[in-house]
Amino acid sequence: NASGEAVPCYAANYEPADEKCYLYGSRSKSDRNTAYLGANSNFIFADKFCIQTKKDCSAETPYIVYPTKQMHKKIITSYPGMNSVVACIAACIDNKRCRAVTYKTGLCILHAASPASDSSLLIDGNEQTMVIENGCQLTTEFLPSLLSSNIVAGSASREESQWEEWGLCQFATGGRRVRVRQRECTSCEDLQVEPC
Questions:
Q1: Which of 9, 70, 23, 20 is nearest to 42 (CA)?
Q2: What is the mean pLDDT of residues 159-184?
Q3: Among candidates 174, 170, 165, which has minimal Cα distance to 192?
Q4: How far apart, in whole angstroms, are the C-alpha atoms of residue 164 and residue 61?
Q5: Whole-angstrom Cα distance, residue 75 to residue 109?
Q6: In this structure, what DSSP letter does residue 73 have?
Q7: How many domains are there within the chain?
Q8: Lowest-pLDDT range, 35-39, 64-68, 151-155, 180-184?
Q9: Domain holding 108: CATH number?
Q10: How many CA atoms are closer than 13 Å to the CA of 178, on its beta-carbon side?
């Protein structure tokens, strides 16, 4: 926290327009360890889950959550009867092609595409649906592209590997301002970060 004390963080909201990050500790969770998510296009919600997988993934991995959204494209497989969002995310992490999941109570759908690289994949769902990014695919360099409305809103799924325009100098890493750009490419570099 701002006082330098170590405080456990269970969830975070990020507001890109004002560059504000809101961290939520144990007091923000209800007695049942359930949080009710409300859709707000001005915020990006990230959550942390305790997940056991075959693939090694950091315990500090953030999972970007899109409440009341779903995806219908790039489906790898589905798991009817899966009643745990954590089990759904674990199935995604263990599948090397999985970039995101759509979770509805009792149904887990794995997708080979990510809303971080193509926001047009997201469609409206209901209070029972959510899309969650595969946080194990994210790196500290890739995370800023999730927070850039220019990249998320302006990208489209393309087969060619042309670089997008550089984003604004709105992020910082290691105390220095940086900008990012990306391209669709599964077998080559797909993200660049440079100092401003």
A1: 20
A2: 71
A3: 165
A4: 26
A5: 7
A6: S
A7: 2
A8: 151-155
A9: 3.50.4.10
A10: 18
Q: Which domain holds residue 66?
A: 11-137
Say whether 120 sits in a helix, a strand or coil: helix
| 29 plus 118 within the same structural domain | yes
Place of tokens 């009341």: 68
Q: Comparing C-alpha atoms, which of 148, 119, 123 is closest to residue 17? A: 148
**Whole-number Å distance between alpha carbons of 24 and 69:** 22
C-alpha neighbours within 13 Å on the C-beta side of residue 21: 10
Question: Are residues 169 and 89 located together in one domain of the fold?
Answer: no
Q: What is the pLDDT of residue 117?
A: 79
Q: What DSSP string describes 12-44?
A: EEEETTTTEEEEE-GGGS-TTS-------TT-E
- Residue 5 falls within a domain, yes or no? no
pLDDT in tens, 68-104: 899 998 999 999 998 888 889 889 988 989 999 999 9
- Whole-number mean pLDDT of the chain? 71
Instruction: Compute the distance between CA of residue 47 and CA of residue 88 in angstroms, rounded to an integer.
Output: 14
* Strand (E) or helix (H) holding 150: helix 149-154
pLDDT higher than threshold 60 for residue 37 = no
Structure tokens at 37: 């998510």
